[in-house]
Amino acid sequence: MLPIIACSVIALAIVAERIWSLRVGRVLPRNLVAQVWRWEKINQLNDRHLQELQNGSPLGCILSAGIMNRQQTHDIMKESIEDTGRHVVHELERYLNSLGTIAAITPLLGLLGTVIGMIKVFATITTEGVGNPGALAGGISEALITTAAGLSVAIPTLMFYRYFRGRVRMLVIRMEQEALRMVEVMHGQREHDLD
User: Fold this and answer.
1) Distances 187 to 68, 71, 124, 139 between C-alpha atoms, Å
2) Whose C-alpha in 38, 136, 139, 162 is 20 to 30 A from the C-alpha of 11?
């Protein structure tokens, strides 16, 4: 039971942290591309704004990589955005492997508890026989409790794992759209419809 309890505490901490970190407003601040374009139009896209942009949000980090290469060709600008985007995606997926691992091992830990409980039942049968149901009940209840505990941790953990994977995919797609929009506007391939 102790490993299952430890897994549940770790899973709860990861879920709370990911709920906080993967908020849309934190990852994709509203009107960020429009703000960048306003800075560009009035020639205020300086190092201070770039640093603020880079440290402000994951989308800002991606946009700042492209902006630093805005004097280069369209392809070089897109390549720098993609390189930075890979690092940002890795950061958005932080702890998700651990959450998936917890979802996979807690039923196995419950099964291990079941096996240990059944071993105790058979050890009791060997020493006392089958005539004492009270002695057998302890091992059987241990087996059932650990299985239930393992499944009780694994099921919600797996649900959150799948939810966060989908959320990261959605955020990545939206960041790609915003970054591509900025590249196209800066290279004159799209109307300035950022407001």
Assistant:
1) 14, 9, 79, 72
2) 139
